[in-house]
């Protein structure tokens, strides 16, 4: 109710400023012990995936807390897991502003942020300072000025540095906002990257005494041949999970809306059916051997159930929080629990 009253005011502000203000307000509520009460209860709905025990299947997608600065406050909303990032080896400012656009008529967002973050070293420090002891994913990528043929070097730097603090690590090869990044989804390129990452993970596991799962985040804009190719590589390299999907470059359903033709990745309600279709195709190709984390257009328990029924084991959301507010997480978990009892 409180967020619904505040939303018109927030939507009159610049989107990035409103984003920072909302998170700062959530931090204050958390310090006062009010954030969990404002969000409502999320029941236990345990799920096991990637060798990890999740208290419920609803997670926070990366991008909301790029720098790991609001982990404790976000955890109080009832998520079963959090994912921060994307993280790059060196700090970078991202793309030029304006670079974030709301499309309220479609409950959507277009962003071309470009992996803006404070760099992996400071982000690891933020994680260590947090009191969160739940499941934390760290999304990793390459710096924008790193040539794509040397991208693996950046991913390996990030993997080594986040390994001690991460519950799982996601290789983001699908953001549309870093030049040539999506080329890493090509068969040859992805094969080489996965080989390097999994080999390094195995070496780190011996040193650290634990094996951190590796996930790969893919785009929704893939044809069937690409999906089959990626699925084969995930199986061959024994990747621990695939996250489907990132934002889309498609503008289907939004081209006539204000900001609908802006460059960048489209997220929110218009992505729902596309991401669900990709999940279903991966589920058929993977045959249950690699868990799928479903992302894209989830704004209700019914949307989350659709992803799970298509073959996902876990789900993540982000954009819908901007439109529905913090109570959404508990509402989805409670809805999923109720549907499981039928």
End-to-end Cα distance = 29 Å
Order of helices and strands: HHHEEEHEEEHEHEHEHEEHEHEHH
| Second CATH tier, the architecture | Alpha-Beta Barrel
- Secondary structure category: alpha/beta
What's the rounded overall pLDDT mean? 97
CATH topology: TIM Barrel
Q: What do we call the CATH homologous superfamily? A: Aldolase class I
Helix fraction, binned, reads 40-55%
Largest sheet strand order: 3-4-7-8-9-10-12-13
Domain count: 1
Uncertain stretches: none
Largest sheet entry: 8 strands, parallel, barrel
- Into which percentage range does the β-strand content fall? 15-25%
Shape: globular
- List how many beta strands DSSP finds: 13
Number of helices: 12
Q: Radius of gyration from the CA trace?
A: 19 Å
Layout: helices, strands, pairs:
Blueprint: H1 2-10, H2 15-31, H3 35-39, E1 47-49, E2 52-54, E3 58-60, H4 71-75, E4 81-87, E5 100-103, E6 108-111, H5 120-129, E7 136-140, H6 151-162, E8 168-172, H7 187-208, E9 214-218, H8 224-237, E10 241-244, E11 265-268, H9 272-286, E12 292-295, H10 301-310, E13 314-317, H11 319-324, H12 328-340
Parallel strand pairs: 3-4, 3-13, 4-7, 7-8, 8-9, 9-10, 10-12, 12-13
Antiparallel strand pairs: 1-2, 5-6, 6-11
Helix pairs in contact: 6-7, 7-8, 8-9, 9-10, 10-12
Q: Would you kindly provide a written description of the structure presented here, covering whatever features stand out?
A:
With 342 residues, the chain is α/β, with parallel strands linked by helices. It has a single domain (2-340), classed as TIM Barrel (Alpha-Beta Barrel), CATH 3.20.20.70. Helices cover 40% and strands 16% of the residues. The protein has 12 helices and 13 strands. It has helices at 2-10, 15-31, 35-39, 71-75, 120-129, 151-162, 187-208, 224-237, 272-286, 301-310, 319-324, 328-340, and strands spanning 47-49, 52-54, 58-60, 81-87, 100-103, 108-111, 136-140, 168-172, 214-218, 241-244, 265-268, 292-295, 314-317. Strand 8, helix 7 and strand 9 (214-218) form a beta-alpha-beta unit. Helix 7 runs parallel beside helix 8 (224-237) and helix 10 packs across helix 12 (328-340). The longest helix has 22 residues, at 187-208. The radius of gyration is 19 Å and the shape is globular. The model has no long low-confidence stretch (mean pLDDT 97).
């Amino acid at each position: 109710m409180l967020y619904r009253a505040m939303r018109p005011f927030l939507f009159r502000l610049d989107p990035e400023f409103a984003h920072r203000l909302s998170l700062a307000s959530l931090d204050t509520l958390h310090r006062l012990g009010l954030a969990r009460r404002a969000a409502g209860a999320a029941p236990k709905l345990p799920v096991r995936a990637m060798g990890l025990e999740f208290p419920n299947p609803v997670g926070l997608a990366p991008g909301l807390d790029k720098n790991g600065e609001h982990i404790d406050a976000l955890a109080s909303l009832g998520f079963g897991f959090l994912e921060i990032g994307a993280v790059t080896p060196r700090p970078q400012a991202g793309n030029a502003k304006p670079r974030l656009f709301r499309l309220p008529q479609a409950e959507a967002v277009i962003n071309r942020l470009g992996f803006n973050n404070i760099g992996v070293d400071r982000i690891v420090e933020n994680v260590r300072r947090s009191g969160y002891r739940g499941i934390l994913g760290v999304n990793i990528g390459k710096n924008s000025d790193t040539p794509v043929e040397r991208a693996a070097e950046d991913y390996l730097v990030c993997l080594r540095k986040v390994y001690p603090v991460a519950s799982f690590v996601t290789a983001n090869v699908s953001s549309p906002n870093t030049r040539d990044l999506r080329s890493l989804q090509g068969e040859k390129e992805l094969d080489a990257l996965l080989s390097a990452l999994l080999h390094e993970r195995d070496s780190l596991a011996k040193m650290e005494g634990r094996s951190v799962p590796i996930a790969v985040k893919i785009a929704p804009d893939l044809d069937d041949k690409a999906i089959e190719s990626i699925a084969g590589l995930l199986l061959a390299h024994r990747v621990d999970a695939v996250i489907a999907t990132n934002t889309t470059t498609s503008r289907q359903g939004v081209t006539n809306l204000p900001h609908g033709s802006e460059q960048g990745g489209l997220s929110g309600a218009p992505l729902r059916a596309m991401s669900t279709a990709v999940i279903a195709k991966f589920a058929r190709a993977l045959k249950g051997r690699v868990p799928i984390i479903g992302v894209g257009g989830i704004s209700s328990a019914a949307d989350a159930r659709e992803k799970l029924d298509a073959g996902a084991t876990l789900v993540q959301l982000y954009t819908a929080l901007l439109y529905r507010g913090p109570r959404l997480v508990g509402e989805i978990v409670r809805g999923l629990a109720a549907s499981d009892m039928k």
